[in-house]
Write a structure and sequence with these properties.
The complex is a heterodimer.
Chain A (H helix, E strand, L loop, with lengths): L2 E4 L8 E4 L5 E4 L1 E2 L14 H8 L9 E6 L5 H4 L2 H4 L16 E7 L15 H18 L9 E5 L14 E2 L4 E2 L1 E2 L2 E2 L3 E7 L3 H4 L14 E8 L2 E9 L5 H11 L8 E5 L1 H4 L9 H4 L7 H6 L3 E9 L14 H12 L4 E4 L9 E6 L2 E4 L6 H5 L12
Parallel strand pairs in A: 3-5, 5-6, 6-7, 7-8, 14-15, 15-16, 16-17
Antiparallel strand pairs in A: 1-2, 1-18, 2-3, 9-12, 10-11, 12-13, 13-14, 18-19
Chain B lengths: L14 H11 L4 E8 L5 E8 L4 H4 L11 E8 L9 E3 L29 H25 L20 E4 L2 H6 L6 E12 L5 E5 L17 E3 L4 E11 L21 H10 L3 H17 L6 E10 L11 E10 L13 E6 L4 H7 L11 E4 L3 H12 L6 E4 L27 H11 L5 E4 L2 H4 L3 H7 L6 E4 L4 H9 L7 E8 L4 E6 L8 H14 L1 H8 L1 H10 L10 H19 L7 E8 L5 E8 L3 E2 L8 E4 L1 H13 L6 E9 L4 E9 L5 E2 L4 E2 L5 H11 L5 E8 L8 H13 L4 E6 L4 E6 L8
Parallel strand pairs in B: 5-7, 5-12, 9-10, 13-14, 13-16, 14-15, 16-17, 22-24, 27-28
Antiparallel strand pairs in B: 1-2, 2-3, 3-4, 6-7, 6-9, 8-9, 10-11, 11-12, 17-18, 18-19, 19-20, 21-22, 23-24, 23-27, 25-26, 28-29
Helix pairs in contact in B: 1-3, 5-6, 8-9, 8-16, 13-14, 14-15
The chains are: A alpha/beta, B alpha/beta.
């Protein structure tokens, strides 16, 4: 059964795609631990994720592919703690980490750290693992589950020129996963753009703007377009303008049934103006909006963020939410903030014969019977 | 989320209702609540429940199956809420074509069937929030017409009214759905109560028979004071059931049939229209030539095959029963002929009992024999019969006495029952018969019966899969095992031991190895290894009762409830055996019964025993494989010399055989040389006595074994040793010899000699 699971990770992204074929694609993770500042009361998304994954014959949990849209902490947090990095043969039962059969990575992994390009530990670990896999490929030795990698987009300076077999060029589609053609999905890579197309603007070289933008089309039953998803990482307004200029002539390449609103419902994906500074005077970039407005009938736009309040915060931004709701009004669609979904479990979308359907949040009677004690300090006189 | 409904409710709303609505407001699917109280003390809340719709249905705000994204649901709280449950109704025009809607007239508000069971109970168990969860789930499933759930079972066609009832064996009628689509006539009997609409109670034994010329004359109605009786007819029709041509109807429709045209429409939907039409047309023709003297009910049962089993059954065949009241004016070809709705009532049948007990359908049932219809046997007979697995033969040699009623399944019919010498087997047969299963009952002592082919035929008729002995008689056990049957069924034994403190259940291995007798010997060894089992099996109380009651009808002092626990547990395993789960190994199950009625089983699979006697010997020697392995291990330990030890087991007088189950290592002062093994004495006497003591004498040191380095038989030395031993014990003695490749043996025995 084709489903997407959108975990409740506040301002961060974490999605598990279950294909009709049974294969799984992880899109970003933000697995906080109790040691993190805001991890204390966070849902145990690691346990939730693991409950959804299969184990191979060797008893190892795995995802078939892991797409990291860009190497920011709120998209890769928890990698080292929960995913096996290094040769698959080094996997240890006692750690019980998740095998990544194939990495789907942006070419950012080839960039050196610099003042403008700092990496958290998990992102550095991702880079190291990606380089290990690329090296295996270069050594003609990387054609096994747990060693495979796809590089999504070309990098500067010809660093990816020798990677043809594992390189997906921007503007092209692919339907292979872990070395096997899988007819139950197709992925169209819309961004990142090669450096020569962006080198006129330094701001487009940041991590956010290196985000992978991917249109993922999912099969359910006989319907090969049962659900069309648009993932955009944290891509900002300049990228969306560029996306529109490049694909505006063929808007179906930007269409979606489900959009994961970029950068946790940030205003910066829709406007050059600052929401906190300009407030109501902040103007929408029509091109960026157009790139994000190709919603199919009954589409859903998700905000993977904290609850959206009517304040000056960004992200998530109330003004961005309004803009998305406006986009959806024309197609009878719905805007959902994942934080508003009842309970601790992920928001789940199932591909049905009639398009994606949000699964009803099963409510446990314990919710009603839950004690108020323990949620805050109770002074007793 | 819900608005503040409960908190801002008017004062006259009860606290209970207010609490319930506060819980409702916490439910994520409840988006609005309005509430008003009535003067009578009741109140009504209107809840808006939001369902998730797939993308393509969002534009219209409703599912194609009539469910709105936001449904208003009326919750009526009676004055006595929460001890009286609320009523939950949907809007009047909510489509009634969904399953799981409470039956009711078409103009009444639609009431969803939210729980399998009582709303009142779920309210108590899960609170009002739990009820809201059921409601949200119901609407969610209804929105995609998926209230029929393969896991829960297919919901039968809902009928909002019932005119008549018919009783017949559902499992029997379902079996008719085989082969090509077809229909059959069956005769019925009926009771008819006059009145505005009249009311029929119809019964059929479901014996298919042709509808012959002149059949109409049988449909004569006899008038009694309050009702009429008579003979009627039934037409039973089924869809194609051949492999790969099977006709399945996966469309759920509530009942709408009122006339013959609509009935035939349903028959078409279920894939059996042509056979029904053909039978009705034929019947019309026959009745046209010889009209029935009075009106009679024509039952029409359509068998609809569903994609998965119906709720609460293991069968996908749904029974849709209708009735046409046929009189001289009825035209069985006229679509306007009126049709009544008949509710089916099942009758007791072995299949129904099997189904309710969670067993798969079985035809034919496994044939088995129960020997012993005492308290344990009668209980096992009833438990298995209630699961549709009654014994085919029951044998007991005794009649019921007054004290038997303390534990036997039979209930006295009168104060004088004890005087009528009713055989126990007949009493149990009559109970089993009431559970719609037949069996033969014999008052018989099986021990002499087994000596003759005719007696063995009674005990185990052809195709008998299991003969279960519950007599608790050591003689019966030995006789069953050691009778020369030719081919025989598998034997099992179930009884209580040690004054009811131990339950004992065994089955032989495939090909009768290990035998019941071997397993008993193994059980004695098991008891001896566990102090608590040994004290229960061979303790003073067990001994005392055996002595007090005699050895064949040992009656323990224990209550029916104490006895029923192990009996029920054993019946459960026996049922599994009968369902084909016996396996090739023998099974030994020893249950320890606690004072509080608790029961702890230890179960082992028992390997086949070895036959180590030579063909020329009268006395057989059977050996547990552990002894064989121990002998080989000891020989390997002492290469190049003769070694040996002591054999533990028993001698079966009825079987005329040794059963060796264990061994005692040679004492340390034994001497081993290439030509001789001398069994020492140091500590041996104590060990030999301990074996007998721990098993109440059931096991003994019955002989010795020793090793010959060459393929030779007993030596002169062995014969002297045998003679010596024989003089010292009162049963035969065994000197077993292990040669490099096989066993030899010498059996010595001193028989009684008259003095002088």
């Amino acid at each position: 059964m084709t489903k997407t699971h959108h975990f409740k990770v506040d301002n961060g992204d974490m999605t598990l795609v279950q294909l009709e074929s049974g294969r799984t694609v992880m899109v970003d993770i933000n697995i906080r631990s109790a040691a993190d500042d805001d991890g204390q009361d966070a849902p145990d998304v690691a346990a939730q994720l693991k409950s959804l994954l299969s184990r191979d014959k060797g008893g190892r949990m795995y995802v078939d592919a892991f797409l990291l849209t860009h190497p920011d902490e709120d998209h890769i947090r928890g990698l080292e703690n929960h995913f096996h990095l290094g040769a698959p043969g080094d996997w240890q039962k006692k750690d019980d980490k998740i095998i990544i059969r194939e990495m789907w990575s942006s070419p950012m992994v080839f960039r050196r750290r610099s003042k403008n390009h700092t990496l958290c530990d998990d992102a550095a670990a991702w880079n190291k693992e990606a380089r290990r896999r690329v090296q295996l490929f270069r050594d003609n030795n990387g054609d096994a589950s747990g060693d495979r990698i796809l590089i999504l987009g070309e990098d500067e300076g010809g660093k990816t020129d020798d990677l043809t077999a594992i390189l997906v060029k921007t503007g092209t589609s692919f339907g292979k996963i872990d070395g096997v053609t899988d007819n139950t999905f197709s992925a169209l890579l819309l961004a990142p753009f090669p450096k020569q197309e962006t080198d006129d603007d330094e701001s487009l070289l940041t991590k956010n703007n290196s985000s992978v933008v991917l249109q993922l089309t999912l099969t359910a039953g006989n319907d090969s377009t049962a659900g069309v998803y648009l993932f955009g990482g944290d891509a900002e307004v300049g990228i969306w303008e560029k996306v529109w200029s490049k694909y505006g002539q063929t808007p179906s390449r930007l269409s979606y049934d489900v959009l994961l609103s970029p950068h946790h419902c940030s205003w910066h994906s829709l406007s050059w103006d600052s929401w906190s500074d300009k407030g109501k005077d902040a103007k929408v970039s029509q091109d960026a909006r157009s790139a994000l407005a190709q919603a199919n009938d009954g589409a859903t736009i998700l905000a993977s963020s904290k609850a959206i309040k009517d304040d000056k915060n960004d992200p998530p931004c109330i003004r961005a939410k309004q803009e998305y709701k406006d986009i959806l009004a024309g197609v009878s669609g719905e805007f959902r903030c994942i934080a508003d979904h009842a309970g601790d479990n992920p928001l789940v979308i199932e591909m049905t014969a009639n398009g994606p359907k949000i699964e009803r949040a099963k409510s446990s009677a314990t919710v009603a019977a839950a004690s108020g004690i323990g949620s805050e300090a109770l002074p007793h006189g | 989320m819900a608005e503040e409904a409960g908190d801002s409710a008017p004062a006259q709303i009860s606290t209970s209702v207010s609490r319930a609505l506060r819980q409702a407001s916490a439910h994520s699917s409840v988006i609005n609540i309005d509430v008003e109280a009535n003067d009578s003390g009741s109140s009504i809340a209107r809840l808006t429940i939001r369902s998730e719709l797939p993308a393509r249905w969002r534009a219209s705000g409703r599912s194609p199956f009539g469910v709105l994204r936001d449904e208003e649901v009326a919750v009526g709280f009676p004055k006595r809420f929460p001890i009286a449950p609320p009523t939950i109704t949907l809007r009047d025009d909510f489509p009634r074509n969904h399953p799981h809607i409470q039956p009711g007239p078409s103009d009444a508000p639609v009431e969803p069937c939210l729980v399998l069971g009582s709303v009142r109970e779920i309210l108590q168990a899960r609170g009002f929030f739990g009820l809201m969860e059921q409601l949200a789930d119901w609407l969610d499933k209804a929105s995609s017409l998926s209230l029929n759930d393969p896991k829960a079972g297919w919901e039968p066609v809902r009928r909002d009214r019932i005119d008549d009832i018919a009783s017949f064996d559902a499992s029997k009628v379902r079996q008719m759905a085989s082969g090509k689509a077809g229909a059959a006539y069956c005769s019925t009997v009926y009771l008819h109560y006059a009145g505005d609409e009249g009311f029929y109670k119809i019964h059929s034994d479901l014996v298919p028979e042709p509808f012959r010329k002149g059949q109409g004359q049988f449909f004569k109605r006899t008038n009694h004071q309050d009702y009429d009786t008579g003979i009627g007819e039934a037409v039973i029709a089924w869809p194609d059931s051949r492999f790969e041509q099977e006709f399945t109807c996966d469309e759920y429709l509530p009942e709408t049939v009122t006339n013959l045209g609509q009935l035939l429409g349903r028959a078409q939907l279920y894939g059996c229209e042509a056979p029904v039409k053909s039978k009705l047309s034929h019947m019309q023709q026959v009745l046209g030539l010889n009209p029935a003297p009075g009106p009679f009910p024509l039952l029409v049962a359509l068998l609809a095959r569903r994609p998965y089993p119906l709720v609460g059954t293991t069968s996908p065949i749904e029974l849709c029963t209708y009735m046409i009241e046929v009189d001289s004016n009825t035209k069985l070809s006229d679509p306007d002929t009126s049709v009544r709705l008949v509710a089916h009532r099942d009758i007791v049948s072995s299949e129904l009992l099997r189904q309710t007990s969670g067993l798969a359908p079985a035809t034919p049932a496994t044939k088995w024999t129960l020997i012993g219809c005492g308290s344990v046997g009668s209980k096992i007979a009833l438990h298995t019969s209630r699961a549709g697995c009654a014994p085919a033969v029951m044998i007991d040699r005794s009649t019921i006495s007054a004290h038997n009623f303390a534990r036997h399944t039979a209930i006295p019919n009168s104060d004088f029952d004890g005087l009528f010498f009713e055989p126990k087997a007949s009493l149990v047969r009559s109970q089993v018969g009431k559970l719609a299963q037949s069996c033969d009952a014999y008052r018989l002592d099986v021990v002499p019966a087994l000596e003759h082919p005719s007696g063995r035929e009674v005990v185990a008729p052809e195709d008998t899969a299991l003969v279960l002995d519950t007599t608790g008689s050591l003689v019966t056990r030995e006789a069953l095992v050691h009778t020369d049957w030719g081919t025989r069924p598998r034997l099992g034994e179930a009884c209580l031991m040690g004054a009811g403190k131990l339950a004992y259940l065994v089955s032989e291995g495939g090909d009768g190895n290990p035998t019941l007798s071997d397993l008993a010997v193994e059980a004695y060894r098991t008891f001896s290894l566990d102090g608590s089992l040994a004290s229960k099996a061979f303790g003073a109380e067990a001994e005392q009762v055996v002595i007090g009651q005699g050895c064949s009808a040992s009656t323990f002092m224990m209550s029916d409830s104490q006895l029923s626990v192990p009996a029920a547990s054993m019946a459960s395993t026996i049922t599994e055996w009968l369902e084909g789960e016996m396996g090739e190994a023998g099974q030994l199950r020893i249950g320890s019964v606690g004072k509080d009625g608790s029961l702890a089983w230890q179960a082992t699979d028992e390997p086949p025993w070895l036959e180590v006697s030579t063909p020329d010997q009268d006395i057989e020697i059977r050996m547990h494989p552990r002894v064989h392995e121990a002998i080989l291990a000891d020989i390997a330990k002492y290469p190049g010399v003769e070694t040996g030890g002591v054999l533990v087991g028993r001698f079966s007088a009825i079987g005329n055989k040794f059963q060796i189950v264990d061994f005692i290592d040679a004492p340390p002062d034994s001497k081993r040389s290439p030509t001789e093994f001398v069994l020492g004495t140091e500590g041996l006497k104590q060990k030999v006595e301990e074996v007998a003591r721990l098993t109440g004498g059931a096991l003994q040191a019955v002989g010795t074994w020793h090793h010959h380095l060459a393929e030779t038989g007993p030596s002169t030395t062995d014969q002297v040793a045998g003679a010596l031993l024989a003089l010292r014990q009162n049963v035969p003695t065994l000197l077993l010899i292990r040669t490099p490749t096989s066993y030899n043996s010498l059996i010595a025995e001193a028989l009684f000699e008259e003095a002088g």
